[in-house]
Amino acid sequence: MQTRKLKLRNIIAIAICLVGLTVFSGCKKETAVESSIIGKWVTSSPNLNHNDTIHFTSGMRIEDYFVFAHITLYSSNSYYFTYSLTESNIKITSHQPGSAEFSETFEYTINGNSLTIRGFNNPFSLTNEARTDVHFTKVE
Questions:
Q1: What is the domain partition of the chain in residue ranges?
Q2: How far is residue 72 CA from its own chain's centroid?
């Protein structure tokens, strides 16, 4: 009888663990790369239409860098940029009212407090100008 109760208790404990794993495996965990990009970054070579600071928020939004978004006909609350990360690529999406979303993907590397985004000197440009890498240093 004791052995039967012990086996039943073990089976119930295993079942509870499996249910717990199943429930919590659906939760999105922030990866080390995602958390390392979050914050404010500054570059020493700003572009004509861009600020020298870019802020990646934990809500997957980009603030500060795309200053032209604030001087358009749209308010800064309705015109915004988001980002997503996959392996060594960052996808930046422009959101505008009454317009289709536009995305562009760039290769990036993070090494400590240094961020390099390849070909990012003129994002969302329709010109054939040669693009160069932009280097950022984390400030916050």
A1: 29-138
A2: 24
Sequence-distant (≥ 6) Cβ neighbours of residue 62 within 8 angstroms: 54, 55, 56, 80, 81, 82, 83, 92
CA distance 14 to 17: 5
CA dist 36 and 117 (Å) reads 14
- The number of residues making up the chain comes to 140
Annotate 32-58 with b (16+ C-beta within 10 A) or e (fewer): eebebbebbbbbeeebeebbebbbbee
pTM exceeding the 0.85 threshold for the entire prediction: no
pLDDT in tens, 18-67: 555 555 544 444 455 567 899 999 987 666 567 788 899 999 999 888 76
Q: What is the pLDDT of residues 98-119, one digit of tens each?
A: 777 889 999 999 999 999 999 8
